[in-house]
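User: Hey, my collaborator sent me this sequence without any context and asked if I could get a structure. I don't really work with proteins. Can you help?
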Amino acid sequence: MDEIKLYSPKVMMDILDRYGFKLNKRLGQNFIIDGNIINKIADLADLDENSGVLEIGPGFGTLTQLLCKKAKKVIAVEVDKNLKEVHKGTLNYPNLKIIYEDFLKVDVNKLIEEEFQGLDVKIVANLPYYITTPIITKILEEKYRVSRIVVMVQKEVAQRINSKAGTKDYGALTLAVQYRADTEIAMIVPNTVFMPRPKVDSAVLVLKILPEPRIRVLDERMLFAVIKASFGQRRKTILNGLSQGLNISKDIIKESLVYTGISPGIRGEELTLEEFGRISDQISKRVKTKEDLNEDLYQDR
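Assistant: No problem. I've predicted the 3D structure and written it out in structure-token form, which is a compact way to encode the shape of the chain:
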């Protein structure tokens, strides 16, 4: 007997009726109904018998089905406990474990260590639009031992992450991702391949995690405090943005900029990651105590 294709709109409607399940707009539940897209995402993850997959938000399991066939082991984290009964009837795979928790509250490093010993771990997900940035930020900040991340995100977010210095999409999120990964927009996905249909198109984004951060800095937290302050008010010059955002005197900021050869009148959106690194190092050398800094920026990027 052929396996039921969960991405089929007819199958989805049957599941909704059979289990009395209501799609939760607040949780961003938009499920893929195109098998070609699902196959493409799985191919981009580059899975084999040595792969472990951490899937964020499996939903009905349209993508999970294929991941279980291609990988050695799949751990899926699902925030909606109402999907438990659905999964019991649709996702019967011996190499699958589903954890019903909020991904943002999961100790993922511990989970990877316990569940994926000896496996090459990939993160694969169709991310809800409303929580995309917090999830990507968590993945990068907590430095999971993963080699690749393949995620479906809102097209505009993918463009921001993959943008270049001097463009309107370039910002703090761009730099946070560039610091740890190579990025590629693998494909644009029209809103017509989802049920229910969202208002905007999506994109499949591939992040290849670097073995070491792209640049070396004296203080990583300082680097991201500098980046965050620089983009806090985009229209400010780098001199004004940093002196106000970091609560450091203009003299220290100006001296640091001059030493690196960067004009105090330039805006943060025009600077590369390497230039931010040089500014960060010079400020680190000149700030005697961390109490001189705006602690909110310094501790929480």
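In plain terms: Residues 220-299 form a domain with the Helicase, Ruva Protein; domain 3 fold (CATH 1.10.8.100). You can pass these tokens on to your collaborator as they are.
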